[in-house]
Amino acid sequence: MTINLDNKGLKSIIENYDLFFIDLWGVVHNGVKLNEKAIDVLAKISEAKKNYILLTNAPRPNSIVKIFLEKMGMNKNMRENVYTSGEAALSYLKKNFLEQSFYHIGPPRDFDLFIDFKNKKTQDISKSNYLLCTGLYDNHDQDLNYYKELFANSISKKMICTNPDLIVDRGEKREYCAGSVAMVFEKLGGKVVYFGKPYPEVYNQSITNNNKKVIAI
């Protein structure tokens, strides 16, 4: 039987699943404030003794996003279920690229992602072993053509993209995300490794999900 979740809500199917992957931005909050109805559903999932992971394509470690959510008013128990695309990428980078130099594409607020190996960051794209894309530069956040010129002679390098999203709505404002920059790189012929929804690594790293009935929201 088909259930209309628009009418009955997620609470009506909680008993049907063991694990809930729930998108953080756009579902639980809008970048400015929490969705109180979503918070109520998270509480119901916990009451039912089910697991949930709050997934976000934020290109930052889990700890930074938890602080952000605390400021919004989310309680500690809920915040502990956060897993970011940045955390998934960080695990991969530490395992495979820790001693290699990289060129960062993104704003200064994303520097927390590579603080443990910041000495490997180079200001010269031609001297980098790989490209780490977390977003757009603050002074080029609306101009994708800028990145075509930036990447023109670096197509042979691998790009690590820590946020596959193309755009995001922050309250009433729409912004480009790292995925839009990565798409420019791919169209030029470059190879991109993505971390975050909908790619599998972020799901597999966040929790053991073998033999569980799973739903993603």
Automatic annotation (TrEMBL):
Under InterPro entries, the record lists:
HAD-like_sf, HAD-SF_hydro_IIA, HAD-SF_hydro_IIA_hyp3, HAD_sf
Q: Which Pfam families match?
A: Hydrolase_6
Identify the SUPFAM superfamilies for this entry.
HAD-like
Recorded protein name is TIGR01459 family HAD-type hydrolase
Q: Source species, please?
A: marine metagenome
